[in-house]
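Researcher: Please predict.
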Amino acid sequence: MAHKLDTISAREKLPPKREPYWLRITKGCYLGYRRMAEDSSGTWLARCRRPDGELVQTSVGSLEQYRPHERFDKAMTAARAWFEANLHPHVAKSGPVTVQEACSEYAQHVKEQKGDGPAQELEARYRRWIWNDPIHKIQLALLAREDVSEFRRRMVNAPVRVGTSGETRARSRDTVNRDLAALRAALNFAFAQGKAPTDAAWREPLKAFRGVSNRRGLYLDRDQRRALIQAAPPDLTLFLTGLAMLPLRPGALAALLVKDFDNRLNVLTVGHDKSGRDRKIKLPPESAAILKAACQGKDLTAPLFTRSDGVAWSKDSWKWPIKHAVKAAGLPSSTTAYTLRHSVISDLVHGGLDLLTVAQISGTSVAMIEKHYGHLRADIAASALASLAL
């Protein structure tokens, strides 16, 4: 029977006895705790069954040199090191793996499964939060819960620089959740590959903040979108027009090449997107005309949407021109390039297009469309119900 050992209160509730209480860490590996008297601080043990079937164990000690709330993590760290060094062949055979190596291996796995786009997004997160943090060099077998908890605190408390003025603001918890998910995915992948003896170190510390991913609230109607486009500099106008007529992520639109648009069939192939899969979108004549104009005079391998200097648009290059256009058009200051995507998807959903099709052309899941836009179906449902009136 497994017992809860990770809190002081849980250990104090265990009746004193000679036989240890055991907590399963992974297949064949256990952490033990023995308390033979009420006033005893207890002793920690590790136990594992060798590949030849022999059951062996070792004492980790009382760990009285640490504060009571630290002892479980210290015992886990010592036990994992013992498992790796002596008894866990599927971990030891590949050698110790650090957090940084686990992240790199996971990014490579994502690249092989989903393509360059999703992998590059992961790598950017790892470069920002892992490579220069002390956690990057810790071996997974020695990674303690307090290590991950401290990393989480550093990430949450890291300020975000606002513009070029040097001002900062607190990071949004929604953004923190995405960064935590990237690390959690890498560590879980390493654990599934047998490169970590347990996931106990990060299972709790890397849990996402709850209730912070809200619907995107800012919506621009068609007149507001036109005003934004008219207020933009000439080279940005075409890019914003593309965002205003296609439910694409700004980065995906900026990554399009001339060859991605078949001007004979009016079909656009989106291959560099967060979803990691190519998808084809059949365009109506009005939308196709915009892309045909963007293709004029360009080689097939050239960016479809470019700045006046011929370079493709990027997040850094469109940010401030859009801010200036937003101000000139008298729109809410929180308007961004992504606001256009949200507004287009809102129109598609509210217009009655089924959610599966909206998800497919937007490059996201039906679940995400339902989560952020499902409430817009209420008016459609009301109209349908009204048609049933006798």
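Model: The chain has 17 helices and nine strands.
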